[in-house]
Amino acid sequence: FLNYATITQNLAQTDTANTAAHIDQSIKIYNDLLVVDTANTTAYKQLASLYSNKKDYNNAVLSAEKVIVLSESPKDSDYRTLATILADQADAEVDPAKKQEIQARALSTIEKAVEITNSPYVARAAGQIYYQVQGSYTSDYERHFLKSLELLDSDALYAEKAKDMYKTVLRSLGVYYYTIAKDNAKAKEIFTR
After folding, report:
1. Is pLDDT at 8 greater than 70 in this prediction?
2. Over the stretch 47-87, which tens digit does the pLDDT of each residue have?
3. 57-62 contacts: CB < 8 A, separation 24 or more?
4. How many helices (DSSP H) and strands (DSSP E) are in the chain?
5. Are 14 and 22 in contact (CB under 8 A)?
6. CB-based burial, 132-160: b 16+ in 10 Å, e otherwise
7. What is the model's pTM?
């Protein structure tokens, strides 16, 4: 049985490794840590990421859900992580009924992240999840990217700090209006900002 200090030392050695063997070793170490500290949300976050990297979505989802359950007040990033894993799980699912169920969970989870904060980053992430789950640009994609743009526009200092994201949001909306919505006037308005 590993003690807490040994676990911490082993994590420091394997945390940055990305090979399959190192991922498996890291998973074992984090699970050993959870035997000692069952409420360690950092360990569950790391496990969610590691399992997701292995495409073991069932365990990734369980780990991400555990973070939310154990947190006194879950962060938007906790819900974004779970939504992303669910969207990836849905992409990998071959059973159409299960796929649809997982997609619905991904969308409801990303909406929880949006409810928690008024962040352009979260709004953009929500648009991306909708795109991934729905397989195309939709009005939900547009809604979230417009919300991100609105939040960036409402705070010039914030927009200045997030110039690259601002450009990405504008470009994404412009492409959406030009290619999907076929609204050249809106596309031109966005592209000339």
Report:
1. no
2. 999 999 999 999 999 999 999 999 999 999 999 999 999 99
3. 57/85, 57/86, 57/88, 57/89, 57/92, 58/89, 60/85, 60/89, 61/85, 61/86, 61/89
4. 11, 0
5. yes
6. bbeeebbebbbebbbbbbebbeeeeeebe
7. 0.81
